[in-house]
Amino acid sequence: MSKPKVETLVDKKGIDRAVARLSHEILEKNNGAESLVLIGILTRGAHLARRIAQRIKEIEAAEIPVGLMDINLYRDDVHSKLDQPVIQRTEILFDVRDKNVILVDDVLYTGRTIRAALDQIIDFGRPRSIQLAVLIDRGHRELPIRPDFVGKNIPTAKDDRVLVRLSETDDEELVKIVRQGMSLAGPAAPERKKKGGKKA
Amino acid sequence: MSLRSRHLIGLEGVAREEIKLILDTAETFREIIERPIKKVPTLRGLTVLNLFYEPSTRTRISFELAEKRLSADSISFATATSSVKKGESLRDTVQNIEAMKIDMVVVRHSSAGVPYYLTQCLDSNIINGGDGTHEHPTQALLDMFTIRRKYGKLDGLRVILVGDVKHSRVTRSNIWGLKTMGASVAVCGPSTLLPYEVEKFGVDVYTSIEEALDGADVVNIMRIQLERQQAGMFPSQREYTNLWGLTRERLRLLNKNYTVMHPGPMNRGVEITNEVADGDASVILEQVTNGVAVRMAVLYLLSGKKEEETQ
C-alpha cells in the first residue's frame, strides 16, 4: 500500500464562487427569497448556510432565517458504533411549516446524512418543499437522494476522503482530497473493499 | 469523549469530564423535549426495563418518558403486581426478564448494592434509580444540571444540603458530583440525622441551619424520610420545622440570586414551608422537567456499550 496522496481541489476563491453561484441558483429556482429558510447540517454545512444567507442578503436585500441541525440522533448506525457521537445543539428557531427549506451540507456522499436530516426536519413540521444544496458532490450514493444545487462535482474512489476546511472552524479555507492506495485512483478507480470515508 | 463504564451505579469515581459530557448532552435533549414532536428515533430497537422495588412517582415516570422520547421500548415492573409476591428472588426475576431480550435496566431497590449486584448477573447496561441509602446518581445529575443552567457554572458555588442526610442517597450522590465539579458543599441537619464521620466526604457539617445558610448560593432540601425511621430521630415534626425547616425568614441569610431545590416528594410544612416551595427562587418543577433530559442523556450515552468494549 503506497502513501496516501493529498491534493487541493478547490481553493478559497473557488469556494467563494461556488457559494455565490449556489445563492443565485437557489433564488432563481424559488423565484426570490420569499418563504425561503436555510438549514445547515453541523458543523460545516451550518457555516455554508450562513454564508449563503449573507449572499442572498446582498443580492435581494432579504433576511433569510438560518437553522442549525445535528443529525446524530437520527443516524441509522447508532448501535453499531463503539462510542456514541457527541451531539451538538439543533437550533431551528422558526416554523418550517409551508416554508421552502434549503438543506445545506458540505459534502454529499452516501446520502445517509441527508436521509437523517430529512426525517428530523419533518419532525419539526411539514415544509412546502425541501431542497438540497451541497458544496461538493462526490458520488457513491447508497440511497435514492440527489442534490438540487451543487457547488462542484468531484469524482472519487470509495476510500478517498474529501475534506472541506472553512475559516470559521479551521485554520484554512479549501477543499482537499486524500487519496488512499494507488495514486492513479482517478474518476474510474475500481471500488475497494474497505470502510468508506468519514462522511456518511 | 465517552463514558468509561457501561453502567451508571453512582457518581463516586465518575470523572469531571464524564459529568460534563452528560450535562452537555442533556442540554441538547432539553431542546428536544420542547419540540412539537418530542421524540427522536435514536434508541429504536432497544428495550429498557424499569425495575422498581420501591415506590416512585418522579423517577419512574421520568425514566419512562426519557425512554419513549428516545424511541426505546420500555417495560415497567412493579413488585406489588409481580411474582415477587410469590417469593421469586431478585436474581431469578431479572434473569427471567432478561431472557426475553432486554438491553438496559433501570433499577430502584431499598438495599444498597443491588444495581452493582445486577451488573454481575446480567449482560444489560444497568442504571441506578436509587439504592437504599447509597446513591441516586440521576437525581444528583439533574440537580447539577439545574444549577448549571441558572448560574452557567458549578465551580465555586456554595451548595447546602439540609435535612435527613443520614438516609438520603440523593445527598451522597450530590456530594460526590458537586465536589468533582468544583462546588463547595455543606450538610446540615439534626445530629441524629447526620451519618457518622460525614465530614470524611470533604464537606462542612452544621447542626444549625442559620450558620449553614449564611453565604450560600443553593439550598437543596433533603426530605425527612419518615418511612425509613424506626426510632424517633427528633422529638416532633413541629420541632423539626422550628429548628431546621426552610422558612422565608431563613432565606435572607443566603446570597443574592439564591436557589431553592427539593428532589421531591415534599413534606410541605415540615422541611419546607409552602411559601418557600412555591416562591420565586424555587426551581423544584424545573428540576422535574430537567430530569427527563438528563435521563435521556444517560440512556443515550450508555446505550450500545457492550461488555467487551469497556474495561
Outline:
The complex is a heterodimer of chains A (200) and B (311). Chain A is an alpha/beta fold. In chain A, 24% of the residues lie in helices and 25% in strands.
Report the biggest beta sheet of chain A as strand number plus sense, adding barrel if it closes.
Answer: 5 strands, parallel
Mean pLDDT figure of chain A = 88
Order of helices and strands of chain B: HEHEHEHEHEHEEHEHHEHH
Name the overall outline of chain A: globular
Number of helices of chain A: 3
CATH-defined architecture of the domain at 12-75 and 86-156 in chain A: 3-Layer(aba) Sandwich
Percent in strands of chain B: 15-25%
Catalogue the unreliable spans of chain A: 183-200
Instruction: Assign an overall shape of chain B.
Output: globular
Q: What's the gyration radius of chain A in Å?
A: 17 Å
> Which assembly state applies to the chains in this document?
heterodimer
Average pLDDT confidence of chain B is 93
Question: Major sheet of chain B, described briefly?
Answer: 5 strands, parallel
Structural class per helix/strand content of chain A?
Answer: alpha/beta
Number of domains of chain B: 2
Helix content of chain B: 25-40%
